[in-house]
Design a protein that fits this description.
The chain has 369 residues and is an alpha/beta fold. It contains 14 helices and eight strands.
Amino acid sequence: MSTPTATALTPIVVAPAQVIRGNLVLCGEAIARLGRRPLVVGGETTLAALQGELPTILEQQQLSAASASYSPDCTEASLALLRSKVQEHQADVIIGVGGGKALDTAKLLAHQCQLPIATVPTSAATCAAWTALANVYSSEGAFLYDVPLDRCPDLLILDYTLIQTAPQRTLVAGIGDALAKWYEASVSSASSQATFIIAAVQQARVLRDILFQKSATALKEPGGEEWRSVVDATVMLAGVIGGLGGAQCRTVAAHAVHNGLTHIPTSHSSLHGEKVAYGILVQLRLEEMVQGNQLAGTARQQLLKFYDEIGLPQSLEDLGLGNIALSDLRRSAEIACAANSDIHRLPFKVAPDHLIAAMVSTTTSAIKN
């Protein structure tokens, strides 16, 4: 009897093993089920802010905890130092606390050390607390590469009370980052017949609609029902889409523009989601200019109104790059157009000159015949 030939399938990593969410839900009981000697990884500011609360919570579960700063970035050097901290403390679980870069560092550290990981986001600026992905940067803060992980976090604690202490700007940035899921996935994957990619693209559309409908009210009423819905969307639903769709529908030009901009030091004052939000406008402008897509022009005009309403950047000037040297802009565009860049998931070829033209004209009126 013949045996069917096995087909290799890409693993699907959709969600954390456990999610705890609500007000004042930061507790040690769920963490204690993962290990007894946690290493808490975060930025210096975050670790200092939680110095009184988190150690007490862990001590109540008789956990022997140590902490270590990942600062200044999720770099290979930082990860090497943190691996030595894991050995020194004999840690058996990692707790990542903070924003996207802190959580990416903690996830990648846990992956490298083969330890369980709990994530505790302190803002809703990204979906890093949810995803099986980590971005690595240079010591100068420039994006280098991303690392797919073999699983999502073992535990995600989404404490709305903690999230609400973050500056409102972080939630606005999270909205920008989450919006990109639709504009990128709909271009790269809308024609796919794969079940989970179809589901991811449709969820991206739902995510976009939630953000359009609820963001303005959420920002006016922090802590309210609409605010919690938007936080859930930016931290969790955005993460679900990346898990369902995988790399194929995760990023296209908007994130490629972000990656290129990180190589300009003066861009570092802007948050990840702010650069990505600007990158969406650049992507739509490329679709207008190179492809002659009038619907992209209409979508861009719609986004410009939405950005104006909630405070997302619409131009290089809004990112503090109004006086950027042409040489820096070209270097950024060349990096965004590198051979391995996600920008090449667009259905047309993009050269650095195309990208530069789009980057300086994001607020231009839509093309009309």
